[in-house]
Design brief:
413 residues, alpha+beta, Uridine Diphospho-n-acetylenolpyruvylglucosamine Reductase, domain 3, Alpha-Beta Plaits, 2 domains, 9-stranded antiparallel sheet, 5-stranded antiparallel sheet, 23% strand
Length: 413
């Protein structure tokens, strides 16, 4: 490999000896069957070494695009390299939608699924829960298909790349719908404390943003199917101009606001597909805690806000509904997500990450698999009831460790 390959943020330089960008599924099977180490890059939006390898790094963007809508129009089969933005355009043209999207439409569907990435909403489960079937190349190079209800399916969907290379996914779809996005400034902390459940349930998707320069919320973002009444929102003022999630940053690449109705895929993400969301000069972390302990979690973060603020760009507070996927951060519990966008300075950020983890430990916080965290693997494993079952499933699909790397070795034990 002559070129240097980094992740989106630029904080990880991959150690692969070879990178493959233009492969068919049979070629991928031959590569895996060859017996060397293999990992999949996805869209490169992970902030740790989960995609790293000293062997072959595979970029699936070169796979032929597949968007096959079922006859009953309830599912769509897609290839393992497609991004959400492209899929959204294709689905919307057919009058269809996925139930939710992440903040960025630029990420790959397979990468989002395998890490339990999510959007927001008290009734919205993460993106992996829309998977009705997946096709993957296991450690011996054979292509296998798993469907919802099959043995091991709930363990394989959020697979961390440990079971194989996902070459295709079948996703649930719904009729296309419109969303309106509203932004409010300066939500007082006292009002948040008194009304948090109502605030978080006030839209199809709700996100609260703070840089912890004070204890108040800088912005509340509501994505709704119905119009909002005029006036304040729980004491917060309607924004007098477009906003970016990070206070003070130009809002050009943010999705349209002011309650203007628009298609689902142009409002559910925070950022427009046609723009790069930022320079990538950032690090990200996120932890999921039980939703019924949300105020405890916010208090725990606020207690060290003076330590956070110097290295923090913004903290997004949002919700995700419970599911049954073994390694989902939302497994069997409705969750409050605490997402942190840091400055791009690993040495300064990591001690703050460790301090946050200590604060959130009594709440049994689960870190997002693709973000920056320092929790020891034994603690992480203890927070997933089905982790031992997942270890067995990974050993069954990849007994020789073709898809293992140092990061997975630590996580799986």
């Amino acid at each position: 490999m002559s070129d240097v390959v980094k992740n989106w943020a630029g904080n990880i330089t991959f150690n692969a000896s070879r990178i493959h960008r233009m492969l068919t599924v049979p070629e991928l099977q031959d590569l895996v069957a060859g017996g060397g180490k293999v990992r999949v890059l996805g869209s490169g939006h992970s902030f740790n070494r989960m995609a790293d390898t000293t062997g072959d790094l595979v970029d699936l963007i070169g796979l032929p695009r597949v968007v096959e809508i079922s006859a009953d129009r309830r599912t769509v089969r897609v290839d393992g390299g497609i991004r959400y933005g492209e899929l959204a355009d294709r689905l919307h043209a057919e009058g269809l939608a996925v139930h939710n999207m992440a903040s960025l439409p630029h990420i790959s569907v397979a990468g989002a699924v395998t890490t339990a990435t999510h959007g927001s909403g008290v009734r919205n489960r993460n993106l992996a829960t829309s998977v009705a079937g997946l096709e993957l190349i296991r450690g011996d190079g054979k292509l296998v298909t798993l469907r919802r209800g099959d043995e091991g399916f709930d363990g394989a969907v959020v697979g961390l790349g440990a079971l194989g290379i996902v070459t295709a996914l079948t996703l649930d779809v719904v009729p296309a719908f419109e969303i309106r996005q509203y932004v409010y400034d300066d939500l007082p902390r006292s009002v948040l404390d008194d009304n948090l459940p109502e605030i978080l349930a006030s839209g199809y998707s709700v996100s609260l943003f703070t840089n912890w320069q004070s204890t108040d919320i800088n912005h509340a973002w509501l994505k709704r199917t119905e119009p909002m009444p005029d006036g304040p929102f729980f004491g917060a003022r309607p924004a007098d101009g477009p906003r970016h999630p990070v206070p003070g940053v130009d809002a050009t690449n943010s999705t349209e606001q002011f309650g203007v109705p628009g298609p689902w895929h142009a409002r559910l993400p925070h950022f427009r597909m046609e723009f790069s969301p930022s320079t990538g000069a950032e690090l990200q972390s996120e932890w999921m805690v039980p939703l019924d302990r949300a105020l405890e979690a916010i208090d725990a973060v606020a207690a060290i806000r003076e330590q956070l603020a110097p290295v923090l760009q913004v903290n997004e507070i949002r919700t995700v509904a419970a599911d049954d996927l073994w390694l989902s951060m939302n497994y069997h519990r409705d969750s409050l997500g605490l997402h942190f966008t840091w400055i791009a300075d690993t040495d300064r950020v990591l001690p703050v990450v460790a301090a946050l983890e200590e604060q959130l430990a009594p709440l049994e916080a689960r870190p997002h698999w693709g973000k920056v965290f320092t929790q020891d693997p034994a603690t992480i494993r203890s927070r997933y009831e089905r982790f031992a079952d997942f270890q067995a499933l990974a050993a069954e699909y990849d007994p020789a460790g073709t898809f293992r790397n140092a990061w997975l070795d630590d996580i799986l034990g």
